[in-house]
Design brief:
Length: about 425
């Protein structure tokens, strides 16, 4: 090998290493400023313009008693990368929240319009009456918000998230399923698996709340459909309990997957004794079978874990557990501090023919993480744990979400720094040379 070839070889190796680095550590793009940002999700608009396709939904919370919180939409951030988001429009959607939890887009098919679903409720005095808000975005100037969980006598339930599903198959309108909790002196009084019935006369009427299972779940839930043998397909819901300290599944034997009769629903218990928080269903190791991705939150030693679902999902002892990240410690010093928070799968680029990365909000440890699979082998559950940002101890990082907001192939990652009134934006676009 001559000098020139050696030089080219070295450059090629260095470039390969750098490229690898680019994929691991996203580049910082800018900051969107708004007070107390927490949970976030992407909102997808109809229309073809790639830089106007996405907006960012942001929930907020203040820990002050009797205070109200606001939900925001950061409009079309993909149009504002050049200015580092200094000129992005931040629209207030609703400002009577009690500690915003998950905020998510309602599929356009449900209400035939752009709409947002929002959950709240907390343990703070004066902020305990949680709600399930539906916001009709037909008129962006004056969005209209309805509480699907309102009752004649207000009840103190905390709601975290929910799923849409036509549960009773009667009016072919999608209903909402959720897990909710009522606390008395910090202890759970009720942890309920419920469904909220879409009113016959449209979503602006009063919704009825039906309890499906008591002492069941209180935080996250996700729906999937699973085959058993060649012929049988079941709808299955996996759910977490932070207060029940149970990780459970529900399935229905109701006709045509009707979930409205509690007697048709069987509960399976996967695990007990830890605080189970976030849960999604995704094929983590890309072997063709969906898995349960969930977080176990704790003051010390929190973790991100996966359960592989066996051929017959009802055999709870046959689920296979993999801890993919551990050692999450709350650094806020308080007994209520927990880490991590949410863990969600995403792709750093448009190539989806590989294992997804996992974003992990550290919650009370003040950090945001990305877990990068160290190999593409379905049997390898190893991940590199990358700290995207560390906002410091005594601070909270609750929200993370991602999308390619300018349509150029590299994914942008949003991280909310609650105590810095800042949403930091990063990109996995290898062509952007801004440094972290
Ligand atoms: Ca229905
Ligand atoms: Ca899998
Ligand atoms: Ca991009």
């Amino acid at each position: 090998m001559g000098r020139a070839q050696l030089f080219i070889a070295l450059v090629a190796v260095t470039f390969a290493l750098l490229t690898d680095l680019v994929q691991s550590q996203p580049k910082f793009l800018g900051v969107i400023s708004l007070p107390y940002p927490a949970h976030m999700n992407i909102f997808t608009h109809t229309g073809d313009n790639p830089t106007r396709k996405y907006s960012l939904l942001v929930n907020t919370y203040s820990t002050e008693r009797n205070s109200y919180d606001t939900a925001y939409m950061v409009q079309h951030p993909g149009d504002h990368i050049a200015s580092n988001f200094t000129d992005v429009a931040v629209k207030s959607i609703y400002n009577f929240l009690y500690w915003g939890k998950e905020i998510q887009q309602i599929p356009t098919s449900v209400l035939d319009t752009e709409a947002i679903l929002n959950f709240d409720g907390s343990t703070i005095s004066g902020k305990a009456t949680g709600s399930v808000y539906i916001t009709d975005m037909t008129d962006y100037t004056f969005p209209a918000t309805y509480n699907a969980a309102s009752t004649l006598v207000p009840e103190s339930f905390m709601y975290s998230n929910g799923i849409w599903k036509d549960i009773n198959l009667i009016n072919s309108r999608d209903d909402i399923m959720a897990c909710r909790v009522q606390l008395v002196n910090g202890q759970q009084r009720y942890s309920q698996f419920v469904w909220l019935e879409h009113p016959r006369n449209g979503f602006k009427d009063r919704w009825s709340i039906h309890v499906l299972k008591e002492s069941a779940c209180d935080t996250s839930l996700a729906l999937t459909s699973l085959k058993v043998g060649l012929l049988d397909t079941y709808e299955v819901i996996y759910a977490t309990g932070q207060y029940t300290q149970r990780l459970v599944l529900f399935w229905t034997s109701g006709f045509n997957n009707n979930w409205s009769n509690p007697d048709d629903i069987t509960t399976g218990v996967l695990e007990t004794g830890r605080e189970y928080y976030d849960l999604t269903i995704v094929d983590v190791n890309r072997d063709g079978n969906v898995d349960i991705l969930f977080t176990v939150i704790s003051q010390t030693g929190g973790s991100v874990e996966v359960y592989e679902i066996p051929n017959d999902f009802r055999l709870t002892e046959s689920y296979k557990n993999h801890v993919i990240a551990s050692g999450f410690d709350s650094r806020n010093g308080g007994a209520a501090g927990r880490s991590p928070g949410i863990a969600r799968a995403f792709y750093p680029t448009t190539s989806t023919n590989q294992k997804p990365y996992i974003m992990v909000a550290g919650a009370d440890d003040g950090r945001a993480y990305v877990l990068r699979p160290i190999s593409q082998s379905a049997n390898d559950w190893g991940y590199e744990k990358i700290v995207v940002v560390d906002s410091g101890p005594n601070e909270a990082v609750v929200g993370m979400t991602a999308a390619d907001i300018n349509g150029n192939g590299g994914t942008e990652l949003f991280v909310s720094l609650h105590d810095q009134d800042a949403i930091r934006v990063y990109t996995f676009d290898p062509e952007i040379s801004t440094t972290l």
